Amino acid sequence: MPRSDDTWCSMRRHHSFLVIILLLLAAAVMRVWDANPAMAQTQSIGAWKVDSDPGLDGSSPSWQSILPVFVATTAQQVTPPMGGGTVERVAVRAVHWEDRLYVMLEWVDSTTDLVTDRPESFTDAAAIQFPAVAASTVPAICMGQADQAVNIWQWRHDQQQELPSLPEDGYVDLYPSDDDSFYPAREAGNPLAQEERRPVRNLVAGGFGTLTSSHAADLIGSGIHAGGRWMVVFSRPFTPKGPLQPEFTSDTPVDVAFAIWDGSKGERDGMKSVSSFTQLNITPEDPPRRAVPALGDWPEYKPPNAMLGYVGLFVAVVLVVGALIWSMTRSEPDAEEPTD
Fold first, then answer.
1. Are 129 and 261 spatial neighbours (Cβ–Cβ below 8 Å)?
2. CA distance readout (Å), 173 to 67, 125, 196, 329
3. Which of 118, 199, 223, 245 ranks highest by number of CB atoms within 10 Å?
4. Residues 20 and 132 in one domain
5. Beta bridge mates, 130
6. CA atoms of 109 and 262, how far apart (whole Å)
7. Model-level pTM?
């Protein structure tokens, strides 16, 4: 009679082996597609030392030659209004010069949305979020919490534009009083209602509904749209001038998260693309650079370790094919032994 127990055990071993090979194949495919689900928890962003002012033009060769770190983003699903997620990833580059940090965000967006003169019009925007204290534990991803505040740097395209000039035959009917008491939004401190327009805002928050503007004017920034993508640069001295803002040092990594709004897709407020927290490290090393600046080929190129994924994929495919052939030959039932 056939040895059914031995055959069953052999088939189970074959199936277990195939499961392992398939898992390796899935891991290799995810590496090739840059789809590591734990990427935000495992990666870090280096803020490299440069010898000259990198400036606020993210399209310049000095910025574009630096290899970026790609950070995955998803729709915001923590608090209403939920949604967004039209931007799948953002390329992050960071450098420092003369005790000043520069962070550049780059993402794909075919349109430039700057007009917010109607209820259904929204602007393109981007933000960087830090814990209020660099060495603190990671706060809640949306606006922090009461005992763990956050510092948010936000850039808005509409605030970067100059106010339209009045035609020669135009007329403005001014309000009879210029006292802030007659302008509730301005009196309440709404940064969008202030007379001074700035492309970047320095904000602090300690939970939902607590977002306020910091009066420290040490944050600068600018955005440029070219080649179907935005390049936005933020910059601030290592030592902040206001409270609830982290100090940057080479001794202490600081957690950082990112958010992107695509105005043409109706994204505003909580409807946005957000990342998980990752770490930013101030380093004295020179930035890793490409021989040729990345202008024109973003986002097709991958981080330098993508080749490992292709090699792993090839090896996994060979192993799977070999395992299937071996399994089919080994799982055939044994011939029945002759009986007397």
1. no
2. 52, 31, 20, 89
3. 245
4. no
5. 151
6. 7
7. 0.71
144 and 20 fall within a common domain: no
Tell me which residue has tokens 């030392």.
Answer: 49
Torsion of CA 281, 124, 264, 40, to 10 degrees: 10
- Count how many domains the chain has: 2
| Residue 278 falls inside a structural domain | yes
> Which contiguous run of DSSP H or E holds residue 92?
strand 89-96
The CATH number of the domain holding residue 293 is 2.60.40.1190
pLDDT digits 0-9 by tens, 207-239: 777 788 877 779 999 999 998 999 999 999 999
At a CB cut-off of 8 Å and minimum separation 6, what does 148 contact?
131, 132, 136, 137, 139, 140, 206
Burial class (CB in 10 A: 0-12, 13-18, 19+), 157: buried
Task: Please state, in angstroms and rounded to a whole number, the distance separating the CA atoms of residues 269 and 274.
Answer: 12
Q: Are residues 21 and 87 in the same domain?
A: no
4, part of any domain: no
Query: Of 331 and 130, which is predicted with more confidence?
Result: 130
Instruction: For residues 34 and 142, give the distance between their C-alpha atoms in angstroms, rounded to a whole number.
Output: 25
Do the beta carbons of residue 253 and residue 78 sit within 8 Å?
no
Q: Sort strands 100-108 and 89-96 into parallel, antiparallel or unpaired.
A: antiparallel
Q: Report the candidate in 287, 298, 323 with the shortest Cα–Cα distance to residue 48.
A: 287
Q: What's the mean per-residue pLDDT of the chain? A: 79
